Sequence to fold (159 residues):
Amino acid sequence: GGGSNAIGIFTPFIGEARLIGVEAGGKSKKLGEHAARFEGGRPGVLHGTYTYLLQDKEGQIVETSSISAGLDYPAVGPHHADLHDQKIAEYTSATDEEALAAFKLLAQTEGIIPALESAHALAYLVREASKFPKETVIVVNLSGRGDKDLPELFAKGVF
Fold:
């Protein structure tokens, strides 16, 4: 949930490429129904780290929501906060519904079952790719296997 996989792929490209992080947009933009710290959070301290948090008016951490357990966390890693504040990287979100659609698309067209965390990045790509110049090279970090997510997806009736 803090973005360690994204930092791993971002770091060698800092200053060389446009960096876009995709957070868990959950069910809605309502506080408590997503895990998009940059879109719905504000700076604060959690576990001794000053970063962007999902918190209420009193500074108390609020519940998060995401189809992806790996993104269901109220804070983002401080390196991402720094990249955001310095405008080195940009951050957006994809909803649960968009991530599930992207998950299905990759599985059906390429036979790759992505992790639900990575499916959020794929959802952004599906939604936004046509806005990039045709010659743009786009790299998506598929950071894990989606077979771990299949029991939950079957239980939710996704498949």
Observations:
- The chain has a mean pLDDT of 94.
